[in-house]
Amino acid sequence: MTTPLYLDHLASTPLDPEVLDAMRPWFDPAAVGNPHAARHRPGWRAAEAIEAARAEVAGLIGARPGEILFTGGATEANNLALLGGTPQGWPVVASAIEHPSVLACLPELSARGHRTATLPVGPDGTADLDALRKLLAGRPALVSLMAANNEIGTIQPLKEAARICTEAGALLHTDAVQILSTGAIDVRALAFLSLSGHKLYGPMGVGALFVREGMALRPLLHGGGQQQGRRAGTLPTALCVGLGAACRLARQRRTADARRLSALRERLFATLQRELPDLRRNGSPDHGLPGCLNVSLPGLDAADLLLDLPDLALSTGSACSTGSPEPSHVLRAIGLSPEEAHGSLRFGLGRGTTEADVDQAAARLAEAIRARGRG
After folding, report:
1. Which active-site residues does the annotation give?
2. Within 10 A of 200 (CB to CB), how many other CB atoms are there?
3. Distance (Å, rounded) from C-alpha 233 to C-alpha 235?
4. H/E element holding 143?
């Protein structure tokens, strides 16, 4: 069977060969040391490799190595930030288009006695900062605002949001999963930041949480006191090394990758719009992820259409919401009707995507839609 053209990099990026090379020695049976075993050389070697990786993760976001906690992924990091980092009795504010791993924490926080509120967004997905000021009203709270949306690609005004939070004595957490391969963040304005290996051309099953020095954090996992007692469990050396290598490569490549992917995204949109004049673009055209394009077509059932396109690996939205019959909460939050939301497709371009790839994808999509009597 022919491998589909992969245009779903927002769901997961392929493992970079340099990352695999960095990880490979730690899959060798000789690399047996537990990184928390402090009384023999194999344990020391593993611990040193993990600390070197921690420094690479910190370097990507301008943090100190001691402010980085390795986790099992961004879902755990988001849960740890909200459930472990919200001070007792503080309200929690999360934008309407956060990842499910953030929004699903709100009912649990409510059950623990925290007031919760949803921050609205505008038609392009940008957070309403006037609404944020009103929600805070000079009161301390924990605010969760993702750096860039995983469905429509809108990049949020984090600097302005951080300024509002600082003035109110609030703490700001950002889910930075999608932005770090093509953009930089000033982490000093944040209390918490979550990231994920498999969105950075690194391995699945590992992520990290930045915790600003001096921040209190209640652990979700209890055990042997690893990582300063903040996140128990033996760290997987190979995965941590892979995340460190991925962060190093992202730091080196993000500017060039962003420029190239922005050009490819605009080429794809222009071609699609030429072939399908009724096409609508979702998200911010001026402040969007370089590799993200989300489009809607009136009357289209996108999930059904993808069955006609086995040669293209696309999605209709977040991979973490696959299987839900409900329309995307992100698209509903920016004003789309359920029918419009069900008619939306997400293209995720990445390092390996070429001009020929986007041209082929546009042609195949237009062909499939015309075959259904549309376009």
Report:
1. 320
2. 26
3. 6
4. strand 142-144
